[in-house]
Amino acid sequence: MQLTLWTYEGPPHVGAMRIATAMKGMHYVLHAPQGDTYADLLFTMIERRSARPPVTYTTFQARDLGGDTAELFKTACFDAYERFAPQAMIVGASCTAELIQDDPGGLAKALALPIPVIPLELPSYQKKENWGAAETFYQIVRNLCTPRAADADFNPRSCNILGPTALGFRHRDDLVEISGLLTKLGITINVVAPLNATPDDIRRIPDAAFNVVLYPETAETAGRWLERNCKQPMTTIMPIGVSATREFVMQVAKLAGVDAAPVLEEQASRLPWYSRSVDSTYLTGKRVFIFGDASHAMAAARMAKEELGFDVVGLGTYSREFARPVREMAAKLGIEALITDDYLEVEAKVAELQPELVLGTQMERHIAKKQGVPCAVISAPVHVQDFPARYSPQMGFEGANVIFDSWVHPLMMGLEEHLIHMFRNDFEFNDKAAPSHLGHGSAKPVGAAVAEEAKGWAPDAEKELQKVPFFVRGKARRNTERFAAERGLNLITVETLYDAKAHYSR
């Protein structure tokens, strides 16, 4: 266990909270000290949910450690059942309470409550949040589902959608988009789980013909169990990007035995048109660094390379359980994957690669801002601004439009800002001129003039550097300073600047 300022994932009991909070009629009793009772902050503040998460804590204190903490847990379980009357209950321990070894599963079983009580074994010091979510969903499915009989009747054009959870990145809107695609294909959606599902809904999962696994990090384990025990095949394509969405539609259509052509012909994405337009040449070859959970990172890498013509110079994930497929994709791109949960390693890699665009989590947003590089968030962990009130999916054809806006606009706005810098000395566009749409009434300057001279730079060299577009100026500065240091030059002149440019252009 590593002490760090930021973490990409919380402990596994947070993953269990995401499953419980997503569901209805499910309650989570968590054996935890006072310091681990932060579920309300996660779900009501960040995701802005209107209801409190269905979590009851034992909230034992230091003075309780000398007494019977097991009795506290049994009391909390019984009180939660009496107060909330859930259809089912999951029980477990937080990372701190795990050290006490009170066995929440055995204690809850001894109460003999008249509802299913599912014990969770979540090793907090070996596993993390996404694994905890996947294990919790798997245990719920395994305990509540009865495998389908070999001769059971079912609708061959029916499916379940598995994976969306509480606190998931755009899960709510992805679900709407994918549900719409399935409906257009004439496929009946039997159950969506865990989001908005009840324990009774979980019991109905075997009634469908196949499963659509939207998020492998949380649903693949359960999907594999259903594949083996209920003979339900599962989808393997994450529909992010136009190409992947088309492949997803064809895969689903094949599983259901329907015609995919009508849906494919009416795709409503503007991305393919733009990629064929002359304007898109500005984006071709842009250096992009990608980091996030494995599924979103791989989907982003494919979309960036195949649909936008970016040059993927870095690809990584904090999802160690999915390290192998990420490494395989990175090898196809001719790069080495970065598998780490240390944000400082990610920051060092971004500084080394000097990309022109970063696609990552909220932590990469901070890293990119620090280094003056545009960034778009593609994956959890996220903050409140990544739960927009508007409809903003990542999946499907509309999701491709949303991603196109999110990724391209930072680069295009960078070009616009560069033009403003280019014409800063023009009589109309100089820094002291009022905005044209405000007439002559504005008096405040709209920006600072040329940056202060850097140490070791001649004034004319610093002035020449300002002509470099701002979104690559940092890279030009660093390359020139490194070039000068390697040659023992104490003063960087205009000649040094152009010599460095020629050297790194080879």
How does this structure look, described?
This protein is an alpha/beta fold. The protein is built from 19 helices and 12 strands. It has 4 domains: 119 residues, Nitrogenase molybdenum iron protein domain (Rossmann fold, 3-Layer(aba) Sandwich); 111 residues, Rossmann fold (3-Layer(aba) Sandwich), CATH 3.40.50.1980; 145 residues, Rossmann fold; 52 residues, Helicase, Ruva Protein, domain 3 (Orthogonal Bundle), CATH 1.10.8. Strand 5, helix 6 and strand 6 form a beta-alpha-beta unit. Helix 5 runs parallel beside helix 8 and helix 18 crosses helix 19.
Map the helices and strands.
Elements: H1 12-22, E1 26-31, H2 39-46, E2 55-57, H3 69-84, E3 88-93, H4 104-111, E4 117-119, H5 129-144, E5 155-162, H6 171-184, E6 188-193, H7 199-203, E7 208-213, H8 216-229, H9 242-256, H10 261-265, H11 271-276, E8 287-292, H12 294-306, E9 311-317, H13 323-332, E10 338-339, H14 343-353, E11 357-360, H15 362-371, E12 375-377, H16 396-422, H17 459-465, H18 470-486, H19 494-504
Parallel strand pairs: 1-2, 1-3, 3-4, 5-6, 5-7, 8-9, 8-11, 9-10, 11-12
Helix pairs in contact: 1-5, 3-4, 5-8, 6-16, 14-15, 17-19, 18-19
Considering the chains and any ligands shown, give keywords for the structure.
19 helices; Rossmann fold; alpha/beta; 506 residues; single chain; 4-stranded parallel β-sheet
Structural class: alpha/beta
Write down the overall mean pLDDT. 85
Give a short account of the largest sheet: 5 strands, parallel
Number of domains: 4
Fourth CATH level, the homologous superfamily of the largest domain: Nitrogenase molybdenum iron protein domain
Low-confidence stretches: 436-453
Strand content: 5-15%
Name of the level-1 CATH class of the largest domain: Alpha Beta
- What would the principal axes of the Cα set say about the shape? globular
Number of strands: 12
How many helical stretches? 19
**End-to-end separation:** 44 Å
- Alpha-carbon Rg, integer: 27 Å
Classify the helix fraction into a percent range: 40-55%
CATH fold-level assignment of the largest domain: Rossmann fold
Tell me what the CATH architecture of the largest domain is. 3-Layer(aba) Sandwich
